[in-house]
Design a protein that fits this description.
about 150 residues; 3 strands; mainly alpha; rod-shaped
């Protein structure tokens, strides 16, 4: 059988104190680590929240700009200085804003114009718009009919 270790009562008190001190320090260190981890998580969540908020604001601003551009494009024929009769214009939207059937209101179409309206800071043509422009300039346009 196991023999019982008899220690001096003063030594037992010191060992008990050391064990208690060890557990207190271990608990303190674990608490600090958990607290720091929770703090980092909270900080990351706040940062993500601010980041998401900034992204949402930027997207809303961009969306408003796009909507403003779409409205101004559709309203272009009604603006002063517009070079065509508004009644001759048909809004297409993509890949070109308007098809202008010059003379359509007078029942004498003399020309078909592909019209791209630019507003705001987006003054350059998109790649698709450039390709369409090049196709039209090269004369690769034709008439087709489809019977149902």
């Amino acid at each position: 059988m196991a023999e019982r270790l008899n220690l001096n009562p003063d030594l037992q008190l010191i060992v008990l104190f050391c064990v208690c001190l060890f557990f207190c320090l271990a608990s303190l260190i674990m608490g600090l680590r958990l607290g720091m981890r929770a703090g980092r998580k909270r900080e990351a969540a706040e940062w993500e929240g601010r980041k998401v908020e900034e992204i949402v604001k930027a997207r809303l601003k961009a969306s408003r700009a796009v909507l403003g551009g779409l409205v101004s494009e559709q309203m272009a024929p009604l603006l002063p200085g517009f070079p065509f009769d508004p009644g001759d214009c048909r809004f297409i939207g993509k890949p070109v804003d308007f098809l202008v059937f010059k003379g359509m209101n007078r029942k004498a179409i003399t020309e078909v114009v592909f019209l791209e309206v630019k507003s705001g800071s987006a003054r350059s043509l998109s790649d698709q718009e450039k390709r369409l422009r090049d196709v039209i300039r090269a004369g690769r346009v034709r008439w087709a009919e489809f019977d149902v």
